[in-house]
Amino acid sequence: MHKFAHISDIHLGAFRDPVIRDLEKQVLSETIEKCIELSVDFVLISGDIFHVGIPDLSVVNDSIRIFRKLQEAKIPLYAIYGSHDYTPNGTSIIDILETAGILTNVMRARTDDEGYVVLDFFTDPKTGAKITGISARKVGLESKVYEKLDKERLEHEKGFKIFAFHSGITELKPAFLSDMETVPISCFPKGFDYYAGGHIHKKSESDLPGYSKIVFPGPLFTGYGKDIEDTARGVKRGFYVVSFAEKVSEIKFVTIKGFDGEFFEYDATGKNSHEAAKELSHKLGELEVNGKVVIVRLKGELAGGKTSDIDSVELCRKLTSKGAIYVQFNKFSLTTKEYEGNRMGGDDISTIEDNYFRENIGSVKVNQPHLKGREGAESAKELLRILRQQQKIGETKTGYQDRITTSGIETLKISEELGTK
Amino acid sequence: MSKDELEIVGQVIGGNVAGIAIREKNGKNIELGDLLVAEENEGGYLILKVFNLGYGSQIPTEVRELAAGLKLEGYSAGLDFMDPKLRNYTMASVKGILRLDKNSQKIPKVLPTFFSSVRLATKEDLAFLATPPKYPIFLGQVRSGSKILDIDVHLDGESFITHHVLIAATTGRGKSNLVKVLLWSALDARKFGMFVIDAHDEYYGRSGVGLKDHQNAKSSLKYYSPDAPPGANTLVINLKALEPEYFDGIVSFTDAQEDAISAYYRKYKKDWIENIVRGIVIEDLEVTRKTIGVLQRKLRRALGVYEQGGELICDSDIFSLTAGETTADDIVWALEKCQTVVVDTSRLGEEAELLIGSIVASKLFYSYKKSKGKGQLDEKPPVGVVIEEAPRVLAEDKIEQGDNIYSRIAREGRKFKVGLIAITQLASVIPTTILTNMNTKIILGNEMASERAAIMNSAAQDLSDEDRTIASLDKGEAIVSSIFAKFALPIYTPRFEDFVAKRKKNNKDDDFDLSKSRLSVK
Predict the structure, then answer these.
(1) Looking at the domain assignment, is residue B407 inside a domain?
(2) Which of B232, B234, B330 sits opposite A208 (nearest CB)?
(3) Which domain does B191 fall in, by range?
(4) How many CB atoms lie within 10 A of CB A346?
(5) What is the pTM of this model?
(6) Most B CBs within 10 Å: which of A144, A173, A186, A204, as the mutation test of the B interface?
(7) Is ipTM > 0.95 here?
């Protein structure tokens, strides 16, 4: 009997806060140590090891130090690109890690004479497991790869087969990701023994006709504000250990406890801002927060005053003084009657950005079809992600500008129009 | 215009507004359903429609009977009438259906000039039909008797869809073909959403020419099937996405069972099914174990869900405990984006099929209703819900058992831009109140008198004289009676495969190629 670990969506470097960064490192370290302790034959990461394609060097350095423990234990690490690992420029940190021998990218694709995408299997030398898969690409492109995939060849291959992917599956899309671009299961090759999914930040194990054991471990720690909020609410994080011989015999979720969390939700409806601030302060004072990550979510409509009257900085300080190691205030669902401006719904920044771009993309007048509608909104969101990237240590200002500009042009696919191709 | 087309075919010799008598010119073979023209002064003309044919003769009946006897019994083999073309002839009963002059088209309130000549209607006479409306839906070409005139018949999609459509015919008269053509046309326009519950898996074109071959299919056609071909979506719906009202009119519950369902839904929201199946007891709820037991059996039969050894199991082909959380929402989203969504229910039982339709139709209807409440309905496109064998949900006895989403759409959908396109062989079992709300009726051939009567009695135009015409409609021939047409239009809907081939030929600018369909598999 063999076994492997299936991890996804680690999102190293997603948070700038040093406390969360330390927790992130700690969770990865604990995960790798658990894999070694469980004597898995290999580890498979189905995308998004890092939060950005070219992360901070300190994050890379820490991760290499942890991943090397696998090498020392002679446990190979396999991976595919996630949507966050992808860079429009071409070279991602994943390629560098592969070159350095830290991991092996198991997506081996080529295009045949008829334009079909042919995937070759990578065979794990110890177990004989045959692994292939499709990495995430820039928005909209991976679905084209699936449409042109030579599935027949993959389906005819004998042996224990794993298909790794980093995409949402239309039929398995969770309700909170209803707007996400996904790929129908009919585009996947049938008959694999295990479908190792990534990209969906919710743990699930499913079967669909012709496709058994479609598994998403969800984020190992956290990639977005919603993840940390869900963890604080008590959602379990971790990875899967899959036992197999000729077929999968057991799938077991291994929980990794990242932190003690406290989630507190406060509905301010009907109160004015000062009443709400006072009551909230009192209620937060009653919480036991020592050593915990505390997430406070405010919602409802204030009867008067401004949302900024609720001084989250002060409340944060109060919680920290009681021993909270990290405090996050979420006021996106709090509104006030006095403010009649443009309210964009959503529980977190990512959702609000989604909604904003989707609702306003129609007002942008462009000729390129790929910059209109849903695809246009996704491109805008991707561009925003690029624009958020900071200058790297040692990177010149000109180099930084060039990197951001090139990435932006690549993302919008407008190099021809600009004559830069 | 050829000389033949303008040739006189008869002459008005009597009658009244309800039936104008025309003597046929010998050898002209006026047909039932023919459109004739009687010209008036200053370029005006009346369009007449033939609703009955009979013999006329100048020779008394006794003489004709005797002559036939002599001939049949061999007394006079060479016996014939003197000037037979003059003495024996065909009489056509016609009715004025439209009066046109340079400025207007009106329902005629006058008779054609006595003794005036009539000719067959030509393409030019009906040119006013050739201008397509803003968002055209193609139904076929104008037909005069069995002759097809080269004039396309379109109705405005927006009003046509939202005012409900009834497509009535017996088997084999071309209902499915007509719906395919109609849906193809909707894909051309991309101005409406169309939700199609495809009980025979015949519209998408899994194994032949179908909607998948439309040049807009990639962007505007979604196909759901329990056995989805590559690129299509697997039809799977999560049990948590089901609300009690989706079962209205589909699965029958007693009052006690309905009370129990309401209580479980109030307490457990989206987990109401799971808690009933697990037999979780709600305190203070006066419901017997027996009621819960019956509910568990009904849910197992309808959804395939049951508990075994503490584990919840769902062995349905389409309902799931883990997958399909967003399927219904995805379909509604696609409809709101003017897409056509075809759901293959050919492998499902009737209850499951109707339930799927009910889930989507309910979500759509209430989403549009909500939009109207917010003043946002103008931003939404009209959506048509196509349902086959409509009496399964619209028959009088079904509605008496309780309202369902289809009857609700038939009654209220127009206000919210949601229309029903109901296909049936048995219009007579649908209540008159609903039939009357179906403001367009596409009537194909039907040999059952009771069915013809039900349709004629609720049509937008007076079809009381069309009984024989409807009975004689051949495959592909139809009469369109609509509040959006001045008169009941006789049409011929081309065979779908021919229609597609013609479109392909005409569409020289695109790379349309059936052999390179987007879902062709290597």
Answers:
(1) yes
(2) B234
(3) 161-233+326-507
(4) 15
(5) 0.82
(6) A186
(7) no
